[in-house]
Amino acid sequence: MMATKAQSAEGPATTGHAEGDGVRRRDFLNVAAVSFAGVGTVAALAPLIVQMAPSADVLAMATTEVDISKVQPGQGIKTQWRKQPVFVRNLMPREIAEANAVPLSELRDPETLAQRTKPGHANWLITLGVCTHLGCVPLGIGEGENRGPYGGYFCPCHGSMYDTAARIRQGPAPRNLFVPDYTFTTPTTVTIG
User: Fold this and answer.
1) What's the burial of 120, exposed, middle or buried (CB within 10 Å: 0-12/13-18/19+)?
2) 186 and 133 in contact (C-beta within 8 Å)?
3) 3-class DSSP state of 65
4) Is the overall model pTM greater than 0.90, yes or no?
5) What share of the chain is helix, strand, coil (3-state, %, to 5)?
6) CA distances (Å), 27 to each of 36, 38, 40, in order?
7) So which residues are the catalytic ones?
8) Reduced to 3 states, what is the DSSP secondary structure of residue 78?
9) 96, 150, 127, 118 alpha-carbon torsion, rounded to 10°
């Protein structure tokens, strides 16, 4: 009987086998509980993350195809891409020469016309129709609109003036009109975006 009391006084440490099973069972329960919580968290967050994805109408506007077959030299059209106006202009040889004659040192945001157009398509200037000052839509793409003294675009809101290559020449706008990514998919079709 004394040995039994001594064993019980030492406690569970002498039983060995039962303690090992208890620790393993407890570890399993901890792992199972954490795993269950993790799966539950993912299941709860998945719908929230999915709803943040762009909607179908936004994905459809990721690219825009523009038919430029009817745009004559010296004319331009206004289209939309991502809910913003885009100016597509067919430059005349005189406008190309004027843009190339401007020294880069005179420009606030120096870029050549070649940097703003695609090789082999120097006459096609495609820019966002959004003034870089406060986001107004400049005039100059439509027939009879004021193009300003540089023959490009004129923003009547605050007086920003752009040349034939849509480069800022005068006024508060800090940068040239933005040139979006675009490719000529056929000689008469441009894909913007």
Assistant:
1) exposed
2) no
3) strand
4) no
5) 35, 25, 40
6) 14, 16, 20
7) 158
8) strand
9) 20
Q: What H or E segment, with its residue span, contains residue 66?
A: strand 64-67
3-state secondary structure of 182: strand
Pair of tokens at residue 31: 């792992």
For the chain, 193 residues long, give each residue's pLDDT as a single digit of tens: 555 555 555 555 544 455 555 568 888 888 889 999 999 999 998 888 888 887 777 666 688 888 999 999 989 999 998 889 999 999 999 999 999 999 999 999 999 999 999 998 989 999 998 988 888 888 888 888 888 888 889 998 888 999 989 899 999 989 999 999 999 999 889 998 8
Burial class of residue 23 (count of CB atoms within 10 Å of its CB; 0-12, 13-18, 19+)? exposed
Give the chain's length: 193
Q: Is 168 exposed, middle or buried (0-12, 13-18, 19+ CB in 10 A)?
A: buried
Backbone Cα Rg of the chain:
34
